[in-house]
């Protein structure tokens, strides 16, 4: 297992390097550069100012030179410096990453827990009204634009009912500590995590349902029945466990989408995560920061994929042999 | 068991058993959800086709005073938006743009994904390895973030949006096609084609790809839906084409006045919802029809 | 001249002195949009940075609504007869937030500092030949020639005082203190949670006795406009600085119970919006075509529908709220027929022109859509070119456009904020704020030069009248609206807007009724 | 066999059982009025071809019918209870405790994610018996009883770590756990190799004796019936054709259908054949292929030898059989000869052409000279192409015009016994035997010199199998073909092959004429194989 993980990590590093190079050139294709943006924001500029900024952002150096310098610093795990924000990129991302991890983590748990639960229910009663209701509901959440649901949720739960806060990570200036702070953050988390989670839930409902129907046709289910096991045990122990394998695979593949989907949620709910950081960095042409976010979020996806693979191996004893 | 029943041999000259395979269309029509989906989609397509007839003027024209609520003026049945543009006209014209984005970007994604997947699956070995690493690259970068960056780079327009959506949505196609081809490659009828001396290209075209068609069709129907959602999300972030009236644009434009005028976002939002829903229902129906193994138990 | 909107039951903020007495203490929650890149005002000059850091740093002077100088770090000032020597007497008890005294040496250092880092200050200080300190609390500026608007350049955003003891001898841009700005202002920087909020706390040693009143100011970063409005509605924030919510939300929010709004606090900036018209090439190089554009624009529709009645049509290069504006000049009215006639005269053959909207939110997007309709109504084929802030800056400063939206601050005087957009010496690539349209007219150049170098107000007026008449006839660009950005507050917040830069230095005097 | 059947009590009485198929099937009832008694302490074999309803009967006893199949009438009495009338709880109580079942596919009948021991323990758990500790102990004891090696270790193993035979033993152990009076075995040895099959049959027989169980044994294989049955029930199309003691039914069948079935079972004695003396059409020398799987940067790869130095030659008009158990490499050799997989070493000469040297276009052209008939009649025809296209695609690829190819296809179809109308139809419209005929027509369309038949009759029922074998024999003679015939079934090999090569672990261990091999096996493995062939008692009789 350790060998497998080491191998995957090595491969991940190569993928990351490729992503860095690809995105490095990609974002430089965009019109404008950070100097232009900052000059524009200043409300007044002259050539000296723009030239100063270009020097400051190291934009006066050749492109391959910039890439080499960037790759060099990445190799030493240094994500570089955001000249615009006057801070190391690692610090900026480090401040935002926990919020994103919390949001996407909760959304992921909600989506997979609810998705598997509802999918299993639907599969068990396939063809019934309950099945139709569950698949219909899941589809509805999937088909409704994420930002639209988010706006509606804010209007309903924050403005009309005043149950939940509408934006932010915590109540600023309340000075909560310990449990009170956790409860406060949890309150802020409910709406964004739910809207994001319910959207992705649909995928798991569909997958779990299909997978369970498929597994329930397999011979060993008949064996389990022939033992005289109750339907509940058969569903849980034999069908669901096997049916979860493709769901785990899917979860690994969904990671990238989940992190990406957080951009919208973070925007609507003013959630201080890296999705928004990325969007702002893009608009400001803050190259180092943008690249940094790409590197970190891609690394998150890779790590998540690795975790799902490890989980898969832990759940499925056959993998060791079949590679 | 059904397979075993059919294996009883009848005497050679006996007429073949009647075809028991239903046509896919008939199978879809037995699926109530899919029928509903088809009806809704037909409505959307109809709206797109009829838009130039019913609303020959540009949907951007400011025809009335702004913020007229729906169902109050006959001339603007669904009300007007913040500039006094007719929501109904926008919906009709937007149908075409939204469907076009969904369709064209999906086709483009298929155009990238199917050949790559087919090559990777059929040729295997190093080609497969290289292609799958490349695919992995695109699956590792958070896709929506990549789409945003692509649109920002190319500057928002219909074309750049379609390209960006296509570029982030092909990897699942490649994986699917590769998996299918991989399993088909060892299928005996493909080997039979090899031993009868047919060329690789002919085999891929004739024996392999047609048999991957049904999962691709199912996936594609879902991709069109996802593309429409993606378009609306990009528009929401202000990355839409400002010269084309699409549903996503309408929702994005209306969201700032959502508190004063719910209808400006509600109608196009509903249109997106219904269309995406319809495409998903059709996808499920297709899946059941083309892939009966997974169909609902009746 | 300065109207104040009275809403709800509230009294206007400007006359809040008649309301209950100031109570010290309390916390202000304010929206800041977008998140500033930094707060070191000497290095970062974008609008949100000025809004926040204007309460950390100070300039030598402040300006009232009529742009008359008020004491800032300078308590008194005088001008020599020949208009070339300015003497400032500094507050003797002013200290930096780290406890070091603020002295004339800091002023001299700040001038040097800003000449290197602050393009607008560089321009404003162009005629300053010497800065000296006769004693620790006196500074003397010597000018090469008279400069009419000189007393108007000492606003905190234009000439912020920076601490010599921290920056002298260091690389300004990488000085670690940039992240923990130290000024002399009423509030001290305490904490910045990127993406969430900036926290300022009261400066207990502020040089004006008894001020400030508030204990803390939280600046909340909320990226989505609708969410900002919700935050105000639900009471999470009490102050919406001008421009932080979409215009469509303003009537609803300002009509809510206990909400006060004012349009004051923007006089120094006097933002005016227009369409850049590329005078170099394409149909827009033709004067008749440019005039046609101006006649085609329905400014009242824009004002009433898109800006919800805020602002007023702009009729010339100088904003009506600033000095030397002349209301008697001819103006372009909405006249599609005349536009069509002029279009015919111009020989326009139906080429598609590219219109670049301003990437600053939905209001600007809607406006671009409306203008596109205006233009198409008179027969000008128009294509919107969507882009983001970087792309907009790049395209305008590279002159890669036909028509482009913009709005520009006037900074209180035509010599500071107007001339740069029309004089031929400002036709330089690389800035979106100079003579982007490429208009060159020696008469205009001379007129602006005369206006700047004259101290006598009547003579300046004459010079600027001539310039305005020429510019309106030549229509180098199409003026749209003088913009208004009302500030919304809970009525319990008093004395927030007391100067012509509003919230930017408003927390010095603000207090919250409790 | 000593038939000392004292008539004890009836274990299960099936009366007039009728099981209805869903509408649109080829007949209304899968099982139509079947009645029989299963007596305590006997093994009753239900025999029939596919579709005879034998498996349905077995499943009906367990209440495990597919959802689409419904009980239309009749009763199954077990002691006091009518099984068909009981509710879900009643069925749960019956299953495992009163009646246990062993399934056909040991590879798929065990949950891949659960340890063997846990799956055994589930049997007790399902019926609320014993403590978890005791269950584990019983699992070990059961594993020992069914002869699994290292019982303590194997209960902790996962199914994929066991061989097919071991899995079937584990299944049997599980079925025996609660000492049921009745065991239903649904083709329990069909998926196993012949030597393993012999062992499992012996195990079932032994256990049945030891525990005095009643066993309902479902099979299609008369060899197995001969070896294990006390009594036999022959089914056809859901109806009982003939019933009686094994000796009587097998020795002197009364019904024509039973007689025909028995006649179709190939005999173990090869008919006399003239030695082929034509020129060598194909010559295989030193063919080797090793598969390397797994292996990463830190793990040693696993290697499997599919072919080790395999050499043989084939004369014109000769049939060479390649026989062996699964994993012996016989199919790999067929694919190596066809160049469907690349050999590591060795040559395949086709006349004067070295096939292994050819590549690209040259290989494509040469392919027409050697053709293949595949095992699975369902997987070997593209479901999306008509029969006509399937047969003519090959010739067209070799430059024959579509028209000429069609003409040839019509002739070939007639030759394999199909109507010309078949050309326009799709494969799914045909039965398994018909599809195999289409596959043969496809191979012959290229007028090859050599035909490689890879388990070409293994998936067919015994009567159809006999027809297809006859057809192949005919065609071989008519076109002077050489045939490489791969099979696991020694009976089939005996009937069709001139010479037979026995393969084990990628090697040919013995190669001689069919008659000599059966009469005079030299290699111990060959002897084991021959000894394990079921139903030898009947051949001897």
Provide a descriptive summary of the structure in words.
The complex is a heterotetramer of chains A (323), B (298), C (514) and D (541). With 323 residues, chain A is mainly alpha-helical. In chain A, 78% of the residues lie in helices and 1% in strands. Chain A folds into two domains: 2-89, no CATH class; 95-315, MetI-like fold. Chain A is built from 13 helices and two strands. A two-stranded antiparallel sheet of chain A has the order 1-2. In chain A, helix 11 packs antiparallel against helix 12. With 298 residues, chain B is mostly helical. The model of chain B is unreliable at 1-21 and 293-298 (pLDDT under 50). The radius of gyration of chain B is 23 Å and the shape is elongated. Chain C is an alpha+beta fold and 514 residues long. In chain C, helix 7 (287-296) packs antiparallel against helix 9 and helix 13 packs antiparallel against helix 14 (457-474). Chain C starts with 26 loop residues before the first strand and ends with a strand. With 541 residues, chain D is α/β, with parallel strands linked by helices. Among the domains of chain D are: 10-90 and 212-261, Rossmann fold, CATH 3.40.50; 318-329 and 364-540, Rossmann fold. Chain D has a six-stranded mixed sheet, with helices on both faces. A six-stranded mixed sheet of chain D has the order 16-17-18-13-19-20, sandwiched between helices. In chain D, helix 3 (116-126) packs across helix 4 (132-145). Residues 1-7 of chain D have low confidence and may be disordered. The chains are: A mainly alpha (323), B mainly alpha (298), C alpha+beta (514), D alpha/beta (541). The interface between A and B is large, with 51 and 45 residues.
Brief digest:
The complex is a heterotetramer of chains A (323), B (298), C (514) and D (541). With 298 residues, chain B is an all-alpha fold.
The count of helical stretches of chain A stands at 13
| Largest interface, C-beta within 8 A | A-C, 57 and 58 residues
Care to count the β-strands of chain C?
A: 21
Based on the structure given, which CATH architecture of the largest domain in chain A is correct?
Orthogonal Bundle
**According to CATH, what is the class of the largest domain in chain C?**
Alpha Beta
**CATH superfamily descriptor of the largest domain in chain C:** Dipeptide-binding Protein, Domain 3
Radius of gyration of chain A: 24 Å
Most strands sheet of chain C: 6 strands, mixed
Poorly predicted segments of chain A = none
Spatial strand sequence of the major β-sheet of chain A: 1-2
* CATH topology tier name of the largest domain in chain C: Dipeptide-binding Protein, domain 3
Main sheet characteristics of chain A = 2 strands, antiparallel
The strand count of chain A comes to 2
Shape of chain A: globular
Question: In CATH terms, what is the fold-level topology of the largest domain in chain A?
Answer: MetI-like fold
Q: What is the domain tally of chain A?
A: 2
Protein name (chain D): Glutathione import ATP-binding protein GsiA
Domain ABC transporter (chain D): 12-262, 282-530
Family (chain D): Belongs to the ABC transporter superfamily.
GO molecular function (chain D): ATP binding; ATP hydrolysis activity
């Amino acid at each position: 297992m350790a060998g497998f993980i080491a191998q995957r990590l090595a491969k991940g590093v190569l993928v990351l390097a490729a992503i860095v190079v690809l995105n490095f050139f990609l974002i430089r294709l965009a019109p404008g550069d950070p100097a232009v943006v900052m000059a524009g924001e200043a409300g007044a500029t002259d050539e000296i100012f723009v030239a100063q900024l270009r020097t400051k952002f190291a934009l006066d150096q050749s492109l391959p030179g910039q890439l080499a310098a960037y790759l060099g610093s990445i190799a030493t795990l240094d994500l570089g410096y955001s000249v615009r924000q006057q801070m190391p990129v690692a610090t900026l991302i480090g401040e935002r990453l926990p919020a994103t991890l919390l949001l996407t983590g909760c959304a992921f748990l909600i989506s997979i827990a609810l998705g598997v639960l509802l999918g299993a229910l639907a599969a068990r009663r396939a063809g019934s009204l309950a099945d139709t209701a569950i698949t219909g509901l899941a589809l509805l959440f999937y088909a409704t634009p994420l930002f639209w649901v988010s706006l509606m949720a804010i209007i309903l739960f924050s403005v009309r009912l005043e149950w939940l806060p509408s934006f932010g990570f915590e109540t600023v200036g309340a000075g909560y500590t310990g449990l009170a702070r956790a409860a406060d953050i949890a309150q802020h988390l409910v709406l964004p995590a739910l809207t994001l989670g319910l959207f992705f839930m649909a995928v798991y409902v569909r997958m779990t349902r299909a997978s369970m129907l498929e597994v329930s046709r397999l011979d060993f289910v008949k064996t389990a029945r022939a033992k005289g096991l109750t339907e509940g045990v058969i569903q849980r122990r034999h069908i669901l466990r096997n049916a979860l394998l493709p769901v785990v695979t899917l979860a690994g593949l969904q990671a990238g989408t989940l992190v990406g989907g957080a951009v919208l949620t973070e925007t609507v709910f003013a959630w201080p995560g890296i999705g928004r950081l990325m969007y702002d960095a893009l608009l400001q042409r803050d190259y180092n920061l943008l690249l940094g976010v790409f590197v970190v979020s891609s690394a998150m996806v890779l790590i998540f994929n690795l975790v799902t693979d490890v989980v898969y191996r832990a759940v499925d004893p056959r993998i060791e042999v079949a590679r | 068991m059904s397979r075993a029943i059919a294996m009883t041999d009848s005497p050679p000259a006996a007429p073949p058993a009647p075809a028991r395979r239903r046509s896919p269309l008939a199978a879809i029509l037995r699926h109530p959800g899919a029928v509903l989906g088809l009806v809704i989609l037909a409505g959307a397509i109809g709206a797109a086709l009829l838009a130039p007839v019913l609303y020959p003027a540009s949907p951007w024209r400011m025809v009335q005073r702004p913020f007229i609520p729906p169902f109050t003026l006959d001339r603007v049945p669904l009300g007007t938006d913040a500039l006094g543009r007719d929501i109904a006209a926008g919906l009709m014209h937007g149908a075409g743009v939204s469907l076009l984005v969904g369709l064209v970007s999906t086709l483009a994604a298929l155009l990238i994904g199917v050949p790559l997947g087919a090559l990777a699956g059929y040729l295997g070995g190093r080609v497969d390895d290289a292609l799958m690493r490349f695919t992995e690259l695109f699956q590792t970068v958070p896709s929506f973030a990549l789409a945003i960056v692509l649109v920002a780079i190319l500057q928002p327009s219909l074309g750049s949006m379609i390209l960006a959506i296509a570029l982030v949505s092909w990897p699942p196609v490649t994986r699917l096609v590769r998996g299918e081809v991989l399993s088909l490659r060892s299928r005996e009828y493909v080997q039979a084609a090899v031993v009868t001396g047919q060329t690789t290209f002919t085999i891929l075209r004739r024996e392999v790809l047609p048999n991957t068609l049904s999962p691709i069709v199912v996936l594609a129907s879902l991709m069109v839906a996802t593309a429409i959602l993606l378009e609306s999300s990009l528009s929401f972030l202000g990355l839409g084409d400002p010269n084309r009236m699409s549903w996503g644009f309408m929702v994005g434009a209306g969201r700032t006045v959502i508190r004063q005028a719910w209808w400006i976002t509600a109608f196009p939002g509903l249109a997106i919802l219904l269309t995406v829903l319809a495409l998903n229902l059709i996808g499920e129906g297709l899946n059941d029809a083309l892939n009966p193994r997974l169909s609902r138990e009746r | 001249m300065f109207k104040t909107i009275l809403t709800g039951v509230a009294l206007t903020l400007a006359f809040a002195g008649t309301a209950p007495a100031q109570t010290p203490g309390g916390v202000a929650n304010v929206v800041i949009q977008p998140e500033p890149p930094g707060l070191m005002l000497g290095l970062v000059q974008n609008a949100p940075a000025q809004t926040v850091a204007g309460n950390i740093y100070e300039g030598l002077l402040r300006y009232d609504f009529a742009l008359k100088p008020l004491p800032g770090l300078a308590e008194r000032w005088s001008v020599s007869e020949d208009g070339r020597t300015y003497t400032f007497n500094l507050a003797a008890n002013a200290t930096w937030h780290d406890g070091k005294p603020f002295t004339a040496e800091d002023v001299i250092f700040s001038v040097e500092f800003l000449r290197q880092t602050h393009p607008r200050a560089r321009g404003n200080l162009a005629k300053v030949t010497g800065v000296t300190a006769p004693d620790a609390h006196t500074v003397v500026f010597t000018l090469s020639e008279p400069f009419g608007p000189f007393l108007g350049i000492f606003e905190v955003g234009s000439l912020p005082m920076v601490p010599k003891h921290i920056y002298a001898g260091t690389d300004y841009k990488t000085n670690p203190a940039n992240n923990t700005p130290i000024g002399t202002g009423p509030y001290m920087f305490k904490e910045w949670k990127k993406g969430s909020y900036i926290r300022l706390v009261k400066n207990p040693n502020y040089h004006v006795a008894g001020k400030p009143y508030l204990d803390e100011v939280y600046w909340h970063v909320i990226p989505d406009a609708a969410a900002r409005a919700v935050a105000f509605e639900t009471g999470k924030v009490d102050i919406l600085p001008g421009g932080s919510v979409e215009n469509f939300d303003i009537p609803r929010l300002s009509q809510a119970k206990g909400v006060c709004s004012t349009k004051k606090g923007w006089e120094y900036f006097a933002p005016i919006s227009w369409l850049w018209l590329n005078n170099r090439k394409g149909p827009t190089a033709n004067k008749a075509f440019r005039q046609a554009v101006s006649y085609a624009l329905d400014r009242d529709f824009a004002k009433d529908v898109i800006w919800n009645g805020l602002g007023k049509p702009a009729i010339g290069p100088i904003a009506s709220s600033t000095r030397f504006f002349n209301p008697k000049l001819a103006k372009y009215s909405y006249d599609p027929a005349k536009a069509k006639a002029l279009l015919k005269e111009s020989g326009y053959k139906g080429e598609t022109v590219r219109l670049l909207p301003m990437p600053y939110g939905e209001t600007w997007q809607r406006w671009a859509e409306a203008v596109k309709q205006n233009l198409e109504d008179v027969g000008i084929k128009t294509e919107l070119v969507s882009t983001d802030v970087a792309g907009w800056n790049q395209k305008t400063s590279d002159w890669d456009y036909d028509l482009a939206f913009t709005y520009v601050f006037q900074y209180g005087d035509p010599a500071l904020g107007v001339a740069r957009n029309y004089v031929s010496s400002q036709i330089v690539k690389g800035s979106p704020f100079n003579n982007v349209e490429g208009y060159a007219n020696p008469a205009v150049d001379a007129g602006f030069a005369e206006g700047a170098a004259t101290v006598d107000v009547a003579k300046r007026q004459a010079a600027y009248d001539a310039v305005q008449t020429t510019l309106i006839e030549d229509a180098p660009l199409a003026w749209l609206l003088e913009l208004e950005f009302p500030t919304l507050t809970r009525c319990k917040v008093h004395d927030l807007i007391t100067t012509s830069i509003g919230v930017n230095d408003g927390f010095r005097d603000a207090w919250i009724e409790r | 066999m000593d038939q000392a059947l004292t008539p004890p009590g009836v274990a299960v009485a099936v009366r007039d059982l009728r099981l209805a198929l869903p509408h649109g099937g080829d007949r209304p009832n899968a099982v139509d009025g079947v009645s029989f008694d299963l007596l305590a302490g006997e093994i009753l074999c239900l025999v029939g071809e596919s579709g005879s309803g034998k498996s349905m009967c077995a499943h009906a006893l367990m209440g495990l019918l597919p959802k689409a199949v419904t009980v239309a009438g009749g009763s199954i009495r077990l002691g006091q209870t009518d099984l068909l009338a009981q509710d879900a709880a009643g069925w749960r109580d019956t299953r495992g405790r009163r009646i246990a079942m062993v399934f056909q596919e040991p590879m798929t009948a065990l949950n891949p994610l659960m340890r063997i021991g846990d799956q055994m323990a589930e049997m007790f758990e399902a019926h609320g018996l014993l403590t978890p500790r005791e269950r584990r102990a019983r699992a070990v004891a059961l594993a020992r009883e069914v002869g699994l090696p290292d019982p303590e270790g194997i209960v902790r193993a996962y199914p994929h770590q066991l061989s097919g035979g071991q899995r079937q033993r584990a299944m049997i152990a599980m079925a025996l756990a609660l000492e049921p009076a009745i065991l239903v075995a649904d083709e329990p040895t069909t998926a196993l190799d012949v030597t393993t099959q012999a062992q499992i049959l012996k195990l079932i027989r032994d256990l049945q004796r030891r525990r005095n169980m009643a066993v309902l044994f479902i099979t299609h294989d008369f060899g197995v019936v001969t070896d294990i049955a006390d009594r036999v029930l022959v089914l056809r199309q859901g109806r009982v054709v003939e019933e009686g003691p094994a000796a009587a039914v097998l020795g002197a069948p009364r019904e024509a259908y039973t007689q025909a079935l028995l006649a179709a079972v190939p005999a173990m004695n090869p008919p006399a054949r003239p030695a082929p003396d034509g020129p060598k059409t194909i010559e295989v020398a030193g063919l080797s292929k090793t598969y390397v799987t797994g292996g990463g940067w830190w793990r040693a790869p696993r290697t499997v030898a599919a072919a080790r130095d395999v050499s043989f030659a084939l004369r014109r008009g000769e049939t060479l059989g390649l026989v062996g158990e699964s994993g012996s490499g016989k199919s790999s050799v067929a694919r190596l000869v066809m160049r469907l997989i690349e050999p590591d070493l060795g040559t395949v000469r086709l006349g004067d052409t070295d096939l292994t040297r050819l590549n690209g276009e040259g290989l494509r052209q040469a392919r027409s000279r050697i053709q293949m008939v595949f095992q699975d009649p369902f997987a070997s025809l593209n479901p999306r192409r008509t029969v006509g296209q399937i047969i003519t695609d090959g010739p067209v690829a070799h430059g024959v015009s579509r028209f000429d190819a069609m003409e040839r296809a019509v002739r070939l179809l007639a030759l394999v016994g199909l109507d010309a109308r078949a050309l326009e139809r799709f494969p799914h419209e045909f039965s398994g035997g018909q599809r195999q005929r289409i596959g043969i027509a496809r191979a012959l369309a290229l007028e090859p010199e050599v035909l490689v038949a890879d388990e070409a009759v293994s998936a067919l029922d015994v009567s159809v199998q006999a027809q297809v074998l006859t057809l192949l024999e005919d065609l071989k003679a008519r076109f002077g073909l050489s045939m490489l015939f791969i099979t696991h079934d020694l009976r089939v090999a005996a009937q069709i092959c001139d010479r037979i090569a026995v393969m084990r672990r990628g090697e040919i261990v013995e190669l001689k004429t069919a008659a000599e091999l059966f009469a005079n096996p030299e290699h111990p493995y060959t002897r084991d194989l021959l000894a394990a062939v079921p139903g030898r008692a009947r051949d001897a009789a």
